[in-house]
Amino acid sequence: MSTIPSTVLDQLELQSIELPSWAFGNSGTRFKVFATPGTPRDPYEKIADAAQVHAYTALAPTVALHIPWDKVDSYDDLRRHAEDHGVALGTINSNTFQDDDYKFGALTHEDAAVRQKAIDHHFECIDVMHATGSRDLKIWLAEGSNYPGQADMRGRQDRLHESLATIYERLGDEQRLVLEYKFFEPAFYHTDVPDWGTSYAQVASLGDKAKVCLDTGHHAPGTNIEFIVMQLLRLGKLGSFDFNSRFYADDDLIVGAADPFQLFRIIFEVIRGGGFNHPDVAFMLDQCHNIEDKIPGQIRSVLNVQEMTARALLVDTDALREAQVSGDVLEANRIFMDAFYTDVRPALAEWRESRGLPADPMQAFAASGYLAKIAAHRVGGVQAGWGA
Ligand code: PSV
Ligand code: MN
User: Fold this and answer.
1) Could you tell me the residue range of the domain that residue 38 belongs to?
2) Ligand 1 pocket residue status of 27, Cβ below 6 Å
3) Which residue minimizes the CA distance to atom 9 of ligand 1?
4) Is 15 a pocket residue for ligand 1 (Cβ < 6 Å)?
């Protein structure tokens, strides 16, 4: 059985991965949303479920909210509720993709009144952040066009800058704005923030408190995502990750499920660039669980990140560097792959037990009966989904 050096365990102990509240609501495809018994009806129940993931893994101490999906009367109360459950409220996600006024754009819209409405929504999100104690405002824009000639791409980019600058001005000293990019969908011809370069250009013109959010599902097949990670860290502009897996488009599958090696390579570059366990770089999940149970889906996800982090921390970087400098291609690759192929699961299980955690969080959660309990108790009301 492989052992994990205590220096690596010390780093793993500090790791935290934020959970998305929307992972606990129902989701699906445009063909069908399968409801699950016990699905939360409100943000309070979502947080209670998210707290289960943390209780069994000690990996997920914060929960991201999506506004307006997670609107409540009192954010102070929601904050206390989270604390009572052993977690805290994290990133606030804005939403400018589900309102009729935004059909042709929000922060980029030709009409100043629509832009102002979208800006005001972000001001509201910043107010929420003050009440919840959240640091980050995450912005993902569903803006673009479907047909060549439909939109003035240059004008939209200029308006985007103006709108973001207005939002940025409103941030508190300790708050940040992270701008997410996505190469297509829902717009198919052009997207206003399609790639890391555009996000970087926009946030670089705002100031130090503006960073890029890298969603691992938002790239074309074959993209070398770890190169982007390296470059953004080098530029001091990697603010956060939205982790998930994709086979085809923005699949939002369990992180590390489609390509564990890619996750390993990404985390290796995070460590190499000084972004691991660094407050500048937030690790978050952005996933949906359409056919699997949501809480175990999230437990499996954070464990996948932990396992690939452990493997990435095992790379013998001194030996790797030596091989790189001497031009020993095969040795460099062997060192890298050796770490990747190390099965850290038994050692992690032992380590968890030594910290009073279950050796197998998936199994322990299944044995707890929590899913049956919420299925029995959460009767009536409207289950949460995208839009609630
Ligand atoms: C868009 O696909 C995205 O990745 C953004 O992060 C959103 O906030 C999230 O999905 C949920 O809508
Ligand atoms: Mn995302």
Assistant:
1) 14-313
2) no
3) 286
4) no
Residue closest to 270 by CA, chosen among 282, 253, 257: 282
Distance 329 CA to ligand 2 centre (A): 36
In this structure, is residue 341 part of a structural domain?
no
Q: Answer yes or no: is 376 within a domain.
A: no
CA of 9 to the centre of ligand 1 (A): 32
**pLDDT over 70, % of the chain:** 99
Ligand nearest to the CA of 186: 1
Which residues sit with Cβ closer than 5 angstroms to ligand 2, an ion?
215, 242, 286
Task: Provide the percentage of residues in the chain whose pLDDT is more than 90.
Answer: 98
CATH code where residue 143 lies = 3.20.20.150
Nearest to 8 by CA among 318, 346, 313, 349: 313
For 358-386, the pLDDT digits (tens) are 999 999 999 999 999 999 999 999 999 98
Return the number of other C-beta atoms located less than 10 Å from residue 292's C-beta: 12
- Answer whether 215 contacts ligand 1 (Cβ < 6 A): yes
User: Could you give the CA distance from residue 368 to residue 202 in angstroms, rounded to a whole number?
Assistant: 47
Residue 272 lies in a domain: yes
pTM greater than 0.90: yes
Q: What is the pLDDT of residues 14-62, one digit of tens each?
A: 999 999 999 999 999 999 999 999 999 999 999 999 999 999 999 999 9
Nearest CA among 181, 207, 209 for reference residue 195: 181
Q: Is the pLDDT of residue 2 over 90?
A: no
State the distance from the centre of ligand 1 to the C-alpha of 194, rounded, in angstroms: 13
Q: Is the per-residue pLDDT at 388 higher than 70?
A: no
Cβ atoms 263, 283 nearer than 8 A: no
Q: Where are the beta strands (DSSP E) in 255-342?
A: 282-285
Into how many domains does the chain fold? 1
Whether 224 maps to a domain, the answer reads yes
